Amino acid sequence: MQNAIKVKPKLSEMARREERWAWLFIAAPFVGFLCFMAYPIVFAVFASFSRWTGMNSLTGNLVGLANYADILTDPKFWKSMVTTIIYMIGIPIGMFLGLVIAMALNRMKYTKRFFTTVYYVPVVSSLVAVSILWAWVFNYDYGLFNTVIKALTGTHGPNWLGDEVWVKVAMIIFMTWKGLGGSIILYLAGLQNIPRDYYEAAKIDGANGWQLFRHITIPLISPVTFYILITSLIGGFQVFVEVQVMTGNGGTNYSAATIVYYLYDKAFGNNQLGYGCAVAVLLAVIIFIITALNFKGQDKWVNTMD
Amino acid sequence: MKLKRVVAAALVALMGVSSLTGCNVAKDSEKSSDASSKTEMKGEGQDEIDILIYAQEHEKAAYEDLIKKFTQEHKDKIKKVNFEVTTQDEYATKMTAAMTAGDLPDIFYVGPDSVRSYVDNGYVLPLDDYVDQKVVDNLWPEIKSAYQYDGTKVGSGSLYCLPKDLSCFAFAYNKDLFDEAGLDYPDPQKPYTYDEFLDVCKKLTKDKDGDGEIDQWGVANANAFGMTPYLYSNGARFLNEDYTKVNITDNKKLKDAFQYYVDLTAKEGVTPTVEQDTALGGYQRWLDGQIGFYACGTWDVAAFMDKKTFPYNWDLCGWPVGPDGDGKSTTWLGTVGFAVNKDTKYPDLCTELISSLSTDLDGQKALSGETTGKSMQIPNIKDYATTTFKEKVKDGTIPYANNLDVIFGYVEGNDKYQGIFSESTYTYNAEWWDTFLEGIPNVQSGKISVDDYFKEVEPKMQDALDNAIKLQNTATKN
């Protein structure tokens, strides 16, 4: 067989016609990708090497890596980067809560659907609308939180959105709430995929509840955990709307601003479009590296059933 | 398996890269996309004109009427006028997108702060050869010069815009609260000194319902807009004369004035606290009758005169005057202008249309309140503003505050009042100014002293200003 020459099988007329159609179907999304992803990406990378303002000449203002050098020495960049990472504290919290709630729901027979829907409502709601709603929940004088805190403790609650520290807590609470429904649905699906017999076999061998959870549930839902982790990290780097809606101008002393908010502020607030593109490129590189590291590390803890 | 994983990683990375293509920013526009509206006016001719501006509802209605009228009068030429109105927040983003795509509308707004960039890069048409000199002569001289540019300096040279308005940020007081406290009304001929103002504010700050918490304050200030009048009225400025250096730490006039300003909140407690202000802004509290003094832009008058919005008696007065200035109460002026795309196919028609939007008498009567009862701006036509408009205010046809002369004082300037354009009007962007604003709440809540704050923020402001100058000097499209 080694020397056999691979002969391309001759296609029938019908097969060829089908192939032509196949190309057409493939072309549609590919052209879309070229226009709406590839071109803007290439353009953004190119623009990131210029002091383009959106108004002036793009090619006449190429400055090489100057924007990148400026970014790395800009304290506001680092401040918003740190804030973005702090907000990610919400990711493990959300995953933990999501798993706990999913396990509880998994035991319910009749009300599972109802509660799943309830938890999923924030996910399908407009982010802008719920951000406005939560700005009121966090309101210093009239908000739900501070009203409850006053009723329970008699003291006035914190200035959730105005204080440099509390605004971060507020954002983490909001993002956790917003993302919870998604993790619950995914975990629920993951839990339902675990064959019953594993648990039964372990029980016969005398495993207790914790052992079942630790050695069967956790490993077998690890692909779901991995998926949630990756998507939340990527989403976490792209937080923008809630900051824009809930705080004025990035919060007191820019304390609530994220990387993407900083990007927007630079590009559209101060006409530094070339600079904004450089921030975007940098952000994409960071996301790429973190994602790659995650994929590399998954062998250590992600189990697949096959 | 390995290949699969690489493909998976690549796909996920692609999701990450989508941050490059503006997907996030696109989400933001959901918020206000419904606030943008398009109207078409049709004629029988060939020419098609696109207009993009931002406006509030009343303004939009007035401009729609004007454009309809214009389309009727020129229906032999005009095929269609596409009139798009967006929000002020969205406007800059939309214009940037339009410029990048090479798809600018025929008529759009340009502010005095960006005349230079628009002209340098060849986006706007010089109006000198198109607009009737009579129209130009009848504009307020203050606004005309804001739209003149000679290639190096704003203030003289060709005219590039016809003003949509000339506004000023005056001061107002709630008469009912003065009556309750048994205080004399402020004298519009003689604005308060810093000390007098603080004294009156203290008398207006009280706990009305006796629950131990202050619920009425002398004054409320929004830092972004309502702070500079206090500072300017003490002769203070942030930048040097050619707008290249930030000068705040060695600037006694500014330091004293800013100290006075933050002390209104931090030390004297005559404004709501920083926390209270985040809970409910000064504007809302003023409308609720909790505030003695509050800013009143020329565009606010209609709302304040509407008893359903503001059920109190009120009048205009001057911002308090500091001891180290020239003794004049000083506030900032605002304006935005109609510009015509340099590459428009219909320069004659477009300039004629913006002349009518800017100075058509019926349009000005509607916008300043004579025919609508809602005054959104003072009239652009100086003759009309200083004669009929004033009379109509006096005889009650136009609902307006009695002390209308305060506004004219700021706009025209006299020995007690003056109006100036804020300093960020003259810099390429306002990042240096935003940088100063960001930390003010911490000074107002006493977390940092004025001295320390100035020291901390000055280098950051200078960096931002240097950046702006760099951008201003980048290579242009021409």
Report what the structure shows.
The complex is a heterodimer of chains A (about 300) and B (about 475). By secondary structure, chain A is mainly alpha-helical. Chain A has 2 domains: about 15-70, no CATH class; about 75-300, Orthogonal Bundle (MetI-like fold), CATH 1.10.3720.10. Chain A is built from 14 helices and no strands. Chain A has helices at about 15-45, 65-70, 75-85, 90-105, 110-125, 125-135, 145-155, 165-195, 195-205, 210-220, 220-235, 240-245, 260-270, 275-295. Chain A is flat and about 75 Å long. The model of chain A has no long low-confidence stretch (mean pLDDT about 90). Chain B is α/β, with parallel strands linked by helices and about 475 residues long. Chain B folds into 2 domains: about 30-165 and about 335-360, D-Maltodextrin-Binding Protein, domain 2 (3-Layer(aba) Sandwich); about 170-335 and about 415-470, Periplasmic binding protein-like II (D-Maltodextrin-Binding Protein, domain 2, 3-Layer(aba) Sandwich). Chain B has helices at about 1-15, 25-35, 55-75, 90-100, 115-120, 135, 140-145, 175-180, 195-205, 225, 230, 250-265, 275-280, 280-285, 300-305, 345-360, 360-370, 380-395, 405-410, 430-440, 440-445, 450-470; strands spanning about 35-40, 45-55, 80-85, 105-110, 150, 160, 160-165, 165-175, 215-220, 290-295, 315, 330-335, 335-340, 415-420. A 6-stranded mixed β-sheet of chain B has the order 1-3-2-4-13-7. In chain B, helix 3 links the parallel strand 2 (about 45-55) and strand 3. Chain B is globular, with a radius of gyration of 24 Å. Chain B starts with a helix and ends in a 6-residue tail after the last helix.
